[in-house]
Structure formats: structure tokens, C-alpha cells
Amino acid sequence: MAKAFPQYFKRFFDDYRVLVRVNPSDFSGIELIVHPDGKIEKTEMTFYEEIFDDLAEDEFIHCNVLEFQIHFTKLKGLSLFIHIASHSLTPGQNLKLYELIISLGTRLSPN
Fold it and tell me: How many of the other CB atoms lie within 10 Å of CB of 2?
């Protein structure tokens, strides 16, 4: 049986955004609330089978795993994520990663 990969969603509200990771094999996941001041709230979630229908109804859209991971790793340290990701991606993917980080307003540091 093939392994199911997590799916990622986002929705923008007036003054914050919500990103959601759902593991379709057991409906576990994480919700991130990103505030304008950069504060990030993380909540471990257990979803139910209708979660994908509910996310669509609530106007969540699919997002890229990198977008979710950038915010998630801000909780643990962005530099470590960049270091690990840059060693597992192709040069073209590395460029896209850095462009995404810059577009999110995140400053890169050598540490």
C-alpha cells in the first residue's frame, strides 16, 4: 500500500492567516495561525474524515509544503530548515525555496 502524503491548505483572514497540514492516512495534523506581528500559534489536531470537504467549504486553498514548513520551522529555527532543505533539493528547487522565503519577508542569516 502506498504511503499517503500530508496535504497542506491555507486561508487569509483580515489580520492573520491559517495554514493546515492534514495527514490523510490517520487524519492527524497541525494548524498554524500566523499573526501580523510574526507570532505563530501551533495546535496539534485530530481531524475527521470530512475535513477536506470542510476546508473547501471554509474557502481554504491548497498551499505548497514549503510555505507551511517555513512558518512551522520559525518555531524551531529557520536556519536549520534551510540547511537541511538545501542539501536535499536540486539547484532549481533551492532557488524556488529562497524566492519563497524572500517573498514571505523572511530574512536569511548564515547561522
Answer: 4
Q: What CA–CA distance (Å, rounded) separates 22 from 1?
A: 19
Task: pLDDT tens for the chain, 111 residues: list them.
Answer: 567 889 999 999 999 999 999 999 999 999 999 888 888 899 999 999 999 999 999 999 999 888 888 888 777 665 555 555 656 666 677 667 666 666 655 444 333
Q: What are the Cα distances from residue 94, in Å, to 21, 49, 53, 80?
A: 22, 35, 33, 14
Residue 103 burial by Cβ neighbours in a 10 Å radius (0-12, 13-18, 19+): exposed
Do 68 and 81 contact (CB within 8 A), yes or no? no
26's grid cell: 490517520
pTM score over 0.70? no
